[in-house]
Amino acid sequence: MSPKVLVTGATGFIGSCLIRKLLSGDNEVFALVRKSSNLELFSDIIGRVRLVEGDITAPDTLERAFQGMDQVYHSAGYTYMGGGNGRDGLLYSINVDGTRNVMRAALETGVGRVLHVSSITAVGMSRKHGKPCDETSPWNFGDIGLRYAETKRLAEVEVKKAVDKGLDCVIVNPAFVFGAGDVNFNAGRLIKDVYHKKVPFYPLGGVCVVDVEIVVEAVVRAMEIGRTGERYILGGDNVTYKELGDIISKVTGTRKFMMPLPYPLAGFLHGLLVLLHSKNRVSKLFNPTMFRVASEFLYFSSEKAVSELGMRAEPIEYSIKRAFEWYKKEGLL
After folding, report:
1. Whose C-alpha in 66, 100, 129, 294 is 20 to 30 A from the C-alpha of 333?
2. DSSP label of 254
3. pTM here?
């Protein structure tokens, strides 16, 4: 009998790719969706997926949705890497309270196993020295004011509470994820804005990057053999933002004209652009909070995922090329 598998966040970037991966196996796949959910990302396979109406912020809907499920992949979340703008409430409601609701419903309905999709921001930063973090690194985002990182850390606290109560759950921490299907332009925003020459400067930090297909393969593997209560970093190349910008310029065929911008000057320049009503002439990624984070080194080691899950690796240039070609094909550039 095929295992019953439910995915939260199924209409998102990682979630929709995960749905496709699960359909390639011997699974009966369910997608948790809201009435207002946009099903465009898996519209071509909608007949093979069972839609279950529910919302991670509405606990009663989860209990109905989780009944009889063998596995639940919790990939739903709210991603906002800026500061302020009144989005703190949404971040906490979806990422923290929503995760608590998922864990509680899984315990109460007897779900066999749960996989929680977290983030490298729940792990920490390698800071200026650039030494890659691993799963045991102390969380140190507190002095930056990135509320998204705080909510992802607190979500993992909820997972660990549920594990202590007997829930079989494993955590994965994807890095900066590129790939086809990033319709909301999360990491893909950088591809789009370099292509349109809206990135005249780059921060002096670095980041860990990985392809979405590698991530979903490792996510499924973690569900299969990951150790209960453990976290697994799912990353790839550790690159500076200059190196990343150069790769994207090469793939997109865009002329490079990017200058280094130290963080102390970024706030002044951002304020000047706002004053001159020229903020829209540069990438939306250029906001003080994100530039503060990007001035650090978010380098990570995926050795644990490689050794325990068999996670594969490939140069990030391949992923960026696939994403860029998909954007062009879909008319999103």
Report:
1. 294
2. P
3. 0.93
